[in-house]
Amino acid sequence: MPDFWTGCGWHLLQRAPDGQLLVTDDFLRSLLLRPELAPVAESCDAERALHHALLDAPRQAVDAARLQALADEDARANYQVWLRFRERLLVRPTLEGSYLQLFRADVDVPPVLVHLLTQVILRQVLGDEATPMEARAAEMLFRTQRIAIQDDGHVMAADEQTVERQAQASFGGIGELLRQAGAMPRTAELDVLGDDNADGYWARSEAHDFVISLNHGQPALAALCRVIERWVKHFLAVDVRVQPEGEIDDEQWVWHVGLDAQASAVLNALYQGEEVDPAQGKRMLCLFRLDFDEPQVVLPQVAGHPVYLAMAMDEANRLRLKPQNLLLNLPLARPAA
Q1: Which residues pair with 192 in a beta bridge?
Q2: Is 287:244 a contact under the CB 8 Å cutoff?
Q3: What is the pLDDT along the chain (337 residues), one digit of tens a residue?
């Protein structure tokens, strides 16, 4: 299988004996080379010196005086973000441990960096045995999707940034003016991933330009279930089985986890017997059933019962999954480390 997502920095990390990831100096250097921190022509000498010093020793301490010496206010702010992110990366021995720790308090690093960590860990989770559909389904866990419901009922998911980029390229400068004015951009023409073109995913994995169908019975949902199973196994060391579900059996409904903010709100309201806004209900996209292979790993009141998962789009037809919900909100008898 060809390599994929080569730009995320996964290959720069080391592996612990249990398959967890270890932060390396080279991975930290890759973050310093991002456009937000790489020096530009206007950078002052102090900024260039700091960048050079951190590339040489990316774990060195940087005090407030060194930051204050930077002439550009944006550069100072960017380095403050990077240093805080570095601290979060190194708070636990493994990247997975640090990732979990991020969500145990208010997340204080930019979403783009959280998504990068999610992608890196997913690359480790998928390993060298992923199918193209599994890799594409995994993109949903770290990249916002734009959802389109076609007249024939097909629910299609496309990468939002790719849709915007394609639409802007189609329109040119006028397209941007229309977008700022609130006009809808022309629908971008993107390929739907299927058996006939699946092998083409590997060469285009960095482009994020394949569309998938989220309808029941379609391979993308089955692939997403396999990704969720492996994600949970990697972090929590428990075996689960996930499958699409048509409805919730009230007699078995003792626990649920929303895979995004929209779905969480709907599931919470339904569970408490509250009325759900019909428009909000229509934005629900998929329902899943998660079962534990070993009932003793969950809380006694949940043993023998499924955990229901759901995902939903927002008012702007965007799907923003939060894979951390699966790690922090499952009813485990022993909480995640």
Answers
A1: 211
A2: yes
A3: 789 999 999 999 999 999 999 999 999 999 999 999 999 999 999 999 999 999 999 999 999 999 999 999 999 999 999 999 999 999 999 999 999 999 998 999 999 999 999 999 999 999 999 999 999 999 999 999 999 988 888 899 999 999 988 877 765 544 444 445 444 444 456 899 999 999 999 999 999 999 999 999 999 999 999 999 999 999 999 999 999 999 998 888 999 999 999 999 999 999 999 999 999 999 999 999 999 999 999 999 999 999 999 999 999 999 999 999 999 999 999 877 6
Q: Is 76 exposed, middle or buried (0-12, 13-18, 19+ CB in 10 A)?
A: middle
Contacts of 123 (CB under 8 A, 6+ apart): 4, 5, 8, 10
Q: Which is it for strands 307-312 and 318-319: parallel, antiparallel or unpaired?
A: unpaired
Distances in Å between the Cα of 145 and the Cα atoms of 142, 214, 252 are 9, 11, 31
Task: Provide the Cα torsion 188, 193, 196, 197; round to 10°.
Answer: 70
d(CA 337, CA 327): 10
Among residues 56, 47, 113, which one has the least CA distance to residue 85? 113
Sign of CA dihedral 248, 251, 257, 261: positive
Decide if 12 contacts 30 (C-beta within 8 A).
yes
Backbone angles phi, psi at 85, to 5 degrees: -65, -40
Specify which residues 156 forms β-bridges with. Answer: 148, 213
Name the burial class of residue 271, with classes exposed (0-12), middle (13-18) and buried (19+) by CB atoms within 10 angstroms of its CB.
middle
Cα dist from 221 to 159, 206, 212, whole Å: 16, 21, 9
Alpha-helical regions (H) of the chain: 25-32, 45-56, 64-68, 73-89, 95-102, 111-126, 132-139, 160-171, 173-180, 219-236, 261-271, 278-282, 324-328
Q: What's the whole-model pTM score?
A: 0.92
User: Of 188, 196, 192, which Cα lies nearest the Cα of 215?
Assistant: 192
